[in-house]
Amino acid sequence: MKIVLVGYMGCGKSIIGAFLAEKLQLSFYDLDREIEKETQNSISELFQSKGEIYFRKKENEILKALLEKEEDFVLSLGGGTPCYYNNHELLLKEGVFSIYLKASVETLLTRLKQERTQRPLLHNQDEVSLKDFINKHLFDRNFYYHQVSKIVTVDDKSVVQIVDE
Ligand code: S3P
């Protein structure tokens, strides 16, 4: 089974994915890191130099290539991955089990406040506008986030609890 983690920036996809893979003795892939490896650029640099459309195209190509692998693995997507091209449909493929790590706006806000300058989609937001931005963005993305096999809420849970669930 290929386990794919979905969720908004800051919900914990990468850390939970790494721990889950270790627990299940599977390889772990983080889609952003795979994009960085292939393009030899950081995500921020890619957004800046080539723009979001280029990034989304690479994201789609590399996701497709990963899902075609024979091996089973745990894969953490980027926050926007299911919302572009036909990516959310790729996750409905046989042999893929997708999990939405669902965090409340309050949890996301607390986590993203300190990190917003490093994130290409958030660096224009000040602390006041960030909550509205996340609210609207989540509203837009909710449809895609809910096309999964299972939803796990992450608020107030430890990494161990979430991985067990
Ligand atoms: C994005 C989330 C980021 C990264 C890119 C775009 C998004 O990944 O893919 O900055 O559209 O939400 P994380 O969710 O791992 O931060």
UniProtKB/TrEMBL annotation:
<dbReference type="GO" id="GO:0016301">
    <property type="term" value="F:kinase activity"/>
</dbReference>
<comment type="similarity">
    <text>Belongs to the shikimate kinase family.</text>
</comment>
<feature type="binding site">
    <location>
        <position position="14"/>
    </location>
    <ligand>
        <name>Mg(2+)</name>
    </ligand>
</feature>
<feature type="binding site">
    <location>
        <begin position="10"/>
        <end position="15"/>
    </location>
    <ligand>
        <name>ATP</name>
    </ligand>
</feature>
<keyword id="KW-0057">Aromatic amino acid biosynthesis</keyword>
<keyword id="KW-0479">Metal-binding</keyword>
<feature type="binding site">
    <location>
        <position position="56"/>
    </location>
    <ligand>
        <name>substrate</name>
    </ligand>
</feature>
<keyword id="KW-0418">Kinase</keyword>
<dbReference type="InterPro" id="IPR000623">
    <property type="entry name" value="Shikimate_kinase/TSH1"/>
</dbReference>
<comment type="subunit">
    <text>Monomer.</text>
</comment>
<keyword id="KW-0547">Nucleotide-binding</keyword>
<keyword id="KW-0067">ATP-binding</keyword>
<feature type="binding site">
    <location>
        <position position="141"/>
    </location>
    <ligand>
        <name>substrate</name>
    </ligand>
</feature>
<feature type="binding site">
    <location>
        <position position="79"/>
    </location>
    <ligand>
        <name>substrate</name>
    </ligand>
</feature>
<feature type="binding site">
    <location>
        <position position="119"/>
    </location>
    <ligand>
        <name>ATP</name>
    </ligand>
</feature>
<dbReference type="InterPro" id="IPR027417">
    <property type="entry name" value="P-loop_NTPase"/>
</dbReference>
<keyword id="KW-0963">Cytoplasm</keyword>
<keyword id="KW-0460">Magnesium</keyword>
<dbReference type="InterPro" id="IPR031322">
    <property type="entry name" value="Shikimate/glucono_kinase"/>
</dbReference>
<keyword id="KW-0028">Amino-acid biosynthesis</keyword>
<comment type="function">
    <text>Catalyzes the specific phosphorylation of the 3-hydroxyl group of shikimic acid using ATP as a cosubstrate.</text>
</comment>
<feature type="binding site">
    <location>
        <position position="32"/>
    </location>
    <ligand>
        <name>substrate</name>
    </ligand>
</feature>
<dbReference type="Pfam" id="PF01202">
    <property type="entry name" value="SKI"/>
</dbReference>
<keyword id="KW-0808">Transferase</keyword>
<protein>
    <recommendedName>
        <fullName>Shikimate kinase</fullName>
        <ecNumber>2.7.1.71</ecNumber>
    </recommendedName>
</protein>
<comment type="pathway">
    <text>Metabolic intermediate biosynthesis; chorismate biosynthesis; chorismate from D-erythrose 4-phosphate and phosphoenolpyruvate: step 5/7.</text>
</comment>
